[in-house]
Amino acid sequence: VLKTLLPVVAGKTAQRHRVIHTRTMNAADTPAGLASIEAATQALASAGYISTRQISTAVYLAHHLRKPVLIEGPAGVGKTELAVSAARALGFALLRLQCYEGLDDSRALYEWKYGKQLLYTQILKEKIGLLIDSADTLPAAMDKLAAFQDLFFSRDFVQARPLLQAMEQRTGSVLLIDEVDKSEEAFEALLLEVLADYQVTIPEIGTIHAQVPPLVLLTSNNTRELGDALKRRCLHLHIGFPQAELERRVLRARVPGISEQLLRQLVAFVQALRAENIRKPPSVAESVDWARALLLLHITVLDESIVRETLNVLLKRETDIREVQQRLRPLTEAALAVAG
Amino acid sequence: MEQVLAGFVRALRAAGAATSTAEAIDAARAVALVGYADRDLLKDALAVSLAKTADDKAIHERVFEMYFASPAQGQFDARTASAMQPQAHDAQLRTGQTEVDALLDLAGAQAGPADRTASTDLQRALARAAQAVGVDDIRFESQIGYFTGRMLQQLGMDALALRLLQRLTQHTEQAQAEALRLQQVRDTLHGQARALVQKRFELFGQPATDAFMADVIVHRPMHRLAPADMERMQAVVARMARRLAYRHSRRRRVRLRGQLDLRHTLRANAGHGGVPFELRFRHRRRERPRIVVLCDVSGSVAAHVRFLLLFLYALQGSVTDLRCFAFSNRLFDVAAPLQSRPFDEAVALILSQACGGATDYGRAFADLREQHWDSIDRRTTVLVLGDARSNHADPRLDIVAAVAGRAKRLVWLCPEPPGRWGSGDSCMLQYRPLCTHVTHCANAMDLERAVDETLQAYD
After folding, report:
1. Global pTM value
2. Which pLDDT band, with edges at 50, 70 and 90, does B72 fall under?
3. What is the rounded distance in angstroms from the CA atom of residue B128 to the CA atom of residue B122?
4. Which of A137, A245, B152, B380 sits between 20 and 30 A of A15, alpha carbons compared?
5. Cα–Cα distance, A87 to A214 (Å, whole number)
6. B320 touches chain A (CB under 8 A)
7. CB-CB: which of A57, A184, A232 is closest to B48?
């Protein structure tokens, strides 16, 4: 009996939409780290992220305009790191959604806990006699059962996934939607409601509004063009390869203990390498790895042979490595000359 | 201040950026937060909220520099500079005629960097006049003089001109001196107004003209493209290729709702005791477009060659699996030069390689059969660009039939109108029944449509 009744019960609830408001957003909720653009730069620096003014402006505007930021740029320039650092700097929880092909709403938004629902159905089945014994007619029995409708399709049976989790945070949070270009177009459509209105609609329960709108950061490596609808709803930040001065500051922050001379030489070489025609130019992440490797090898001054031996830290493609190795001498010499 | 921002958004749109109203509102909110005081900050804030692609960022950079350029910069030459020296006897020139006095104040105050507020007064007056006469609606370069005149009129130049005329007819020394001064003021104002109109033309008029010309050019028959058009054409074709790439890069996976995938469904629902809560459907993976292009570069289509190659050049970016061959008789693989060199160099190289000797389609097809047969399979679309004028050589219909049988589609794009097919040495009518699709392809529009249809076959 119950098996046939359950869908009816569920359907009835679905018709009654309720909006769940727990707390309205307060303008005074701005954390100290987002009070101004300079404050954002400082807060990020305290978390070990060397920010440019462009990046700080984007983060600052994202909070004050309540808009997500879409961050694009080559791999390894610190797109994901920005979100992680921002969460750390502001003392926010970080909720991370890694996108991949085939990602759907049950992984991103919410899922019903089927197992638990089944278990409760079993319990109800045993007790159903007791429940509807006192009812004389079928409508009376239905009414009695209807009182249980919330039990099966209530918040207790919803498994929240990152997007819903972010909506339910009671304090500020950073929601990182990583590599959104890896997902399909259908998933972009799914994001629109979350990003534009900071709400998630669960048909059986109602619309859940964000208690405190999260700071949403989306990253993309541009493996495919994102839809206009998504882009329109986001602020757009492009992070490219850094200038030499900025890269030195990043390395100083990330690789403490590196000597100033090695730093200058290393950055000059990496910058020169990026100007070469190679398939996968080294990114900031690679130069950090390289700096750590050199530090570990107790190297204080670059020379050609050291570069040759450690080139595989910097370049990840066989063809690139082969190509660069042929021209390593002039490249190294030029870089060392620049570093002085 | 909203007007300034609205003007900026209009300038962006005129320059070809896709800026929506929603984004303009975001920009206004962002500007309300950061203010206009710090130029770099303003630029960053606007870039973050308005420009969402690499192209848009470049446009934004350029338009911002033009639109928010500091107004009077770089417009002084030696002559106007001297004219702007405040002169001792200016005071004596006071006429009591308020309109003329106001103009004298404006121009005299231009004096130099020392007097900044007055200099902005002039700029402000000019901007007001510009708005009053609708300078932003300028479309053509020839309108610059007209709008300059209207602006000066708006500023009250008529009164000044009248006074100048009066003074010129009086032959006293003082009148002559005043006339000279009035002339200087007139020239200064005229120069400034003209510079402003010129800048507005670059912001609003130039892009509109360019868009109009681009529209004309895509409908112009290929053989009538002048060398000067080619430069414009390069930009147009690049945009076409991007559009094609965008339209066809999406939806690689199609969900077929009707077909239940039983195996997947059972596996997915094993955790629910085999009760099929979650259904799994079959996916059909879409094929990636594979295109082989054979491009005739011989004398008979010489007028089209540059354009056809330009199109191939642009297409490199949008079709991942593209093989390009050029021939007049022997077949040459031209993918490498098109990929690695700038366009003009690539064309020169291809023409020097492939263009020589009499056209022979049969020979080219034979080369395809012998050397590049592997590049054609059942997923491939073969595009032939050429007029099929083969100098009465054997057209090798057998190979073409084999190609048609082997490939997904064989599409022939002929620059000659259908009326001339089959005349003289044209083999078009013989090839025609073997092809999936034959079409007359006269201009850029036709070419885009043909490629669009080709790619659609893979959607």
Report:
1. 0.70
2. very low
3. 10
4. A137
5. 10
6. no
7. A57
